[in-house]
Target: Probable beta-glucosidase G
Amino acid sequence: MFWSVYIAFIITLSITGSTATSSPGLNETKWLDSRRQADAWVSRMNLTEKAAIVTGSLTGTCIEYVAPVESVGFGGLCLQDGPAGIRLAHLASVFPAGVTISATWDRELMSQRGSAMAAEFRGKGAHVVLGPSAGPLGRSPLGGRNWESFSPDPFLTGVAMDQTIRAIQEGGVQGSAKHIIGNEQETQRKRTVVDGKQVEAISSNIDDCTLHELYLWPFADAVRAGVASVMCGYSRVNSTYSCDNKHLLVDILKGELGFDGYVVSDYMATMSGIDSASFGLDMNQPGPMLSDLTKTAWGDNLADAVHNNLFPEARLNDMVRRVLTPYLYLGQNTPDYPSVDPSSLYLTLENFGLLQPWMPTPAGRDVRGNHSALIRHMGAAGCVLLKNVNNTLPLKESDITNIGVFGDDAADVTSGLVNPDDGFSIGTLGIGGGSGGGRNSFIVSPLEAIKERAREKGGITVQYITNNTALSSGVPGALYPWPDICLVFLKTWETEGADRESLEADGDSTAVVENVASLCPRKTVVITHSGGANTMPWASNPNVVGIIAAHYPGQESGNAIVDVLFGDVNPSGRLPYITSNRTEDYGEQAQILNVTGPAATESWAWQSNFTEGLMIDYRHFDSNDIDPLYEFGYGLSYTTFELASELSVSVRSGPVSPYPGTVPTNSTLALGGNPNLWKTVVTCSSSVKNTGSLAGATVVQLYVSLPQDDVPSGTPVRVLRGFDKVFLDAGETKAVSFALTRRDLSYWDVEAQDWRIPRGEIGISLGFSSRDLRRRSTVKII
Ligand SMILES: *[C@@H]1O[C@H](CO)[C@@H](O)[C@H](O)[C@H]1NC(C)=O
Ligand SMILES: *[C@@H]1O[C@H](CO)[C@@H](O)[C@H](O)[C@H]1NC(C)=O
Ligand SMILES: *[C@@H]1O[C@H](CO)[C@@H](O)[C@H](O)[C@H]1NC(C)=O
Ligand SMILES: *[C@@H]1O[C@H](CO)[C@@H](O)[C@H](O)[C@H]1NC(C)=O
Ligand SMILES: *[C@@H]1O[C@H](CO)[C@@H](O)[C@H](O)[C@H]1NC(C)=O
Ligand SMILES: *[C@@H]1O[C@H](CO)[C@@H](O)[C@H](O)[C@H]1NC(C)=O
Ligand SMILES: *[C@@H]1O[C@H](CO)[C@@H](O)[C@H](O)[C@H]1NC(C)=O
Ligand SMILES: *[C@@H]1O[C@H](CO)[C@@H](O)[C@H](O)[C@H]1NC(C)=O
Ligand SMILES: *[C@@H]1O[C@H](CO)[C@@H](O)[C@H](O)[C@H]1NC(C)=O
Ligand SMILES: *[C@@H]1O[C@H](CO)[C@@H](O)[C@H](O)[C@H]1NC(C)=O
Model:
C-alpha cells in the first residue's frame, strides 16, 4: 500500500523547467565570424561611409535610421519604438506592457511576446526594436515610465530581459536594452533652459554597490542574452550625462560586462560632439545633431576629426564594427529582409504633427498575424487577483442576471486609438503614453466584452455608468433592478515625460468605488488598469469583495478581463511590485525629486542621491518591517496550492572560492561578466501540489537571505533569486527545482571590485509570495 502510493507520487512528479537560461545568448563562433566580416567591410569603407554608419540619418522614414552604404552591401538600419510593439504603425498589434508580462511570472509567455513582437517589427522592415526596458527599474512607484519596464526587482526584470531579448533576436531583429542607467524619473530628465539659464538634467547619484546589485543587474542579463545594442538615457549619472559617461559605457558595460555590440543614444540624448564617441557612445541618433540642435554631432565632423588626427581611426573602426556585427550575425543583410513599410513615412510625420489633410495615408502592411489570441492570453495571465471574499469570483453565470458596470475605464475610448487617454476622458486604458505606447488597430473595452458575453449567454442585463464625475458625486440613480454584481473599472494614466503625482487611481476613483460599493453591498468587484502600484483605500471595505490588478493588457483588454471574471482563465498573475496605502511607506529617499522655487533654476540643482541604496520596493518594506497592502509576489487563484515536500538544498561538490576568480583566458566573449558568475553553486528542490478542485497555475518563489554579519550594512533581509510558474491539474503534484548561480549568492564587494560569496549561513526560503514563505533552510558555502 505504502509503496504503491509512493510510486504513484513519483510518477506524477514531473520536473518543470525552472532554471534560468544560463548559456550565453550568442553563438560565439558565429559572432566571431560576423565580426570578421564586419572588419572586412570596415577595411573597404572610406571615412565618410564609416562616419555615416555610426550617425543617424534624417533621410529615412523610421523614427531613427542609418543610411545604407552600397559599396559594401550594407542596407541601412531602421530603428523603431518601442517595448510593447511597433509604435508608429498601421495594422500592428499593441502588446501588453512590460509590467503586465512580468506580472505573469511566466518565462514562456515572456518569450512568446518577444517572438510575436519580432515578427511584427521584421514584417514592417524594422531592424531594431528600441527595447526592452530595464531602466527605469522602478526606484519610486511614482516613476512615469515604470510600466514600460518589468519590475523593481532586478532578478525578475533580469529574467524578463533575458527571455525577451533572446526571443526578439531569434526572430532576426536586434534588441536595444534601455536606458543605461539610473533613468528613474521623468521630472527634469533632460537639460532645460529656464529664464535663459541652462539647467542640467537630473543626476542619479548611485554608489557602486547599488549600481551592481540593483540597477545594472538586469543589463548584465541583457548582455548575457546577446543583446545587439544598449541605449543610454537622457539623464546624468554622478553628474555626467549617461551618453558621455566613460566609466559606465567603457569600464563597466564594455569592460566588466563584456558587451560587444553598440551603444546608441536615446533620441537626441547626445550631449557633446566627438567627445561622446571617445567616451564610449557608438551611434548617435536621430541624425547629425546634438541635443540643443545648435551644433552638429558626428557625420562628416567625425570623418574630418579622423582626417585631422583629432580622433583615432581605430576607435571609429571599432564603432562601425560594433554596429555591423549584429546586423550580419542576425542575417539582416539578406535580400529577403522585408523593406520598410511605405506607410512608415506618413506615420512618422503624423507623430511629429506634420501630417497634412492633403497628404496620402497609404494603408500599412498588416503584420498582426494571429497575435490577438496571444495578447488576450497574456492579458489574462497578467491579471493579479488580490481579493476574493467567499469566492465571489469567478462569476457564476447561472446565478447572475444583472451585471452593473461602472467607471470611465470600462467604456470604449473616446479620444482616438493612439495612447487613447490623457487620464481624464472616458475610455479604457490598455497601454501608457509616449514611446512605449502604440497605435491600436482596435481596442476591446471591458464593457464591450461583457455585453458580448451577456448576449452569448442570453437573459443577462448589462447596466452601466461610465461617467466618473457622475459616479463620484453620489449614488447614481437610473438603475433598475439593482445589479447582482457591480464591476468597477479604474484606470491610472502613466506616460513618458511625466511622473505620477499620486498612487491613487484617476478620476476621483476612491469616491467612485465607495459610492458604487454602498449601492452594491458585498457585491462590488474593482478592476484596475494601471502601470504599477496603486493605493487602495477601499481595499478593506467589506462591500468590496473582489479586486483584480489587470495592469496594461494591450488591445485585447476587455476579452482578457472577461476570461478571468467568468473563470475561463484561472488567474495566476503575481504582483511584480509591492503596494501600500501610503506613498510615504516607500521610504523618504525613493521619491521623485522635484526641485521647486528659485533653486530649480540653479544649473546643478537636480541631484538625486540614491542614499536608500538597495532598499527599494519590497526590500525596503521587509527590512524595515512595514506592513504592505499587498506584498511583492502576492496573488490569489480560484484554486489552492501547497508545497508538498521539504525544501532540499545541495551545494556543488568540491571547494567553492569566495570570489569568481579571473575570467578564463580562452573566452573571447565574457557576455554578462565573468562566466564563473553564471555557474550553478547551489541547487534547491521541492514540490508543489494543487490542493483544490480546479486546474490552475501558481508561482513558487525562492528568496535568499545573505548572512547579515558578513555583508555590508544596507543589504536587504531577503531578495528574490528564483521562481517557477507551475501549471497543475486539480490534485496534481510537480517537482520544482532552482539552480542558484554564484551571482545569485554573492554581494558586490566594493573594495575587491568583485562579487563575493559571504561566509556563514545563507538562508533560503520557498513560498508563494515575499511574505508567504512556507519552507526555510540554510546553506553554508564558505
Ligand atoms: C554556431 O555557429 C556555427 C557557425 O555558423 C555553426 O557551425 C554551429 O553549428 C553553431 N552552433 C550552434 C550550437 O548552433
Ligand atoms: C567614399 O565613397 C563614396 C562611394 O561609396 C564616394 O561617393 C565618396 O566620394 C567617397 N568619399 C571620399 C572622401 O573618398
Ligand atoms: C558614482 O559615485 C560613487 C561615489 O563616488 C561611486 O562609488 C560610484 O562608482 C559612481 N558610479 C558611477 C556609475 O559612476
Ligand atoms: C499562431 O500561428 C502560428 C503559426 O503561424 C502557430 O504556430 C501558433 O500556434 C498560432 N498561435 C495561436 C495562439 O493560435
Ligand atoms: C458627467 O456627469 C457630470 C455630472 O453629472 C455632467 O456634468 C457631465 O456633463 C457628464 N459628462 C459626460 C461626458 O456625459
Ligand atoms: C513638481 O513640481 C511642479 C511645480 O510645483 C508641479 O507642477 C509638478 O506637478 C510636480 N511634479 C511631480 C511629479 O510631483
Ligand atoms: C461570507 O460567507 C460567510 C459565511 O457564509 C458570511 O458570514 C459572510 O457574511 C460572507 N461575506 C460576504 C462579504 O458576503
Ligand atoms: C546630494 O549629495 C550631495 C553631495 O553629498 C549634497 O551636496 C546634496 O545636498 C545632496 N542632495 C540632496 C537633495 O540631498
Ligand atoms: C488601507 O486603508 C484602508 C482605509 O483607510 C484601511 O481600512 C486599511 O486597513 C488599510 N490597509 C492597510 C494594509 O494599511
Ligand atoms: C575554456 O577553458 C575552460 C577550463 O579549461 C573549459 O571548461 C571551457 O570549456 C573552455 N571554453 C572554451 C570556449 O573553449
Remarks:
- Residues 33 and 329 are 8 Å apart (CA to CA).
- The two ends are 44 Å apart (CA to CA).
